[in-house]
Amino acid sequence: MDTGSGLFDRAYSESVIDYYDFNTDNIHWNCISGGSEMMVQAVVARINKESIILNQKVVSLSSDADGVHVGVVNTQDNLRTDPVFKDVICTLPLGPLRNVDTSQLNLDIYQRTGFRCLAYDISVKVGLAFTSRWWEKAPWNVLGGSDSTDLPSRTIVYPSNGIGDTGRAFIIASYTWSQDALRFGSMTHDERVEQTITDMEIIFKERAKAAGVPYNNDVREHLINEECYSHAWQNDKWIQGAFALYGPGQFSTYYGPSIKAVCDGRLHFAGEALSENHAWVNGSIISAYRSVGEILDRRGDTERKALLERLWGDDSFAKEE
Ligand SMILES: Cc1cc2nc3c(=O)[nH]c(=O)nc-3n(C[C@H](O)[C@H](O)[C@H](O)COP(=O)(O)OP(=O)(O)OC[C@H]3O[C@@H](n4cnc5c(N)ncnc54)[C@H](O)[C@@H]3O)c2cc1C
Q: From CA 222, how far away is CA 85, in angstroms rounded?
């Protein structure tokens, strides 16, 4: 709760779930070689590529006897089409879903309100680019891990992979959430980078003082200014927040109604924000499992349901109170 300033106003249950994400016995972390994009590429490799249509912005959802109509606008030529599908799983984040015309769906008041008010946290990352991994060398000897500070940039995450590599390298030199991200997100890119450099210099000057060594301007000396990046997820129109972090009472009041399939069980709502494991890819997987299971149940496809359970486990965990 103290990783971001002012996070104490969120649901207590979120803090408990978050705690167990990091503090469960026998926890084992894996690193995906090549980055998380590899995960997407692995999924794409299993799907018929012809069936993936890119650059389509969903603008409306409705249904009739033919199925679920998904109104889409091609983001390249602005042409609108309304393809119809037997089953649809909508995984839009709740911010962009707000801009989709759902008025023909006759959603009940709890589901509509859930989509509108289930709370998101916000987040900003600033990545500083350097000519080398100078922080891993003496006298600093920082080999992975993170620094937490009450300076504006709050959290520095040092790469824990590729330790000892030569050549250019990046540090997530500022990772902020909640009120800290609100303030950082309001700054320009150049201001964010400059603030992050300033904060990092303060931290390394303190390190130098504690070690009784001079600070030799390492941060600025190794910096590649034009390759530094920053991203404020709350300003990103495709997500409009970072990840769900429900407020008090929202799990009990809005979560159940919000994940209900509509249009005679043919339109499902999924994605990280409509799962119990917010801010993790695991949340989107849990919600995908739920939606696929519901579609197979509706179709009476016991064979594929059995396959789903064999490959991914049964859903008894979801039924436990
Ligand atoms: C800063 C940050 C750090 C994170 N760190 C981690 C981590 O370390 N580990 C981890 O497991 N998870 C992490 N997560 C969470 C993880 O990224 C999400 O849980 C996951 O990506 C959610 O997947 P999703 O498919 O539900 O939504 P998304 O990945 O957000 O996908 C939704 C898609 O819908 C698209 N979209 C939006 N509007 C429309 C529209 N109108 N029409 C068509 N498409 C639309 C978007 O472009 C996007 O591609 C992090 C998230 C953030 C923001």
A: 54
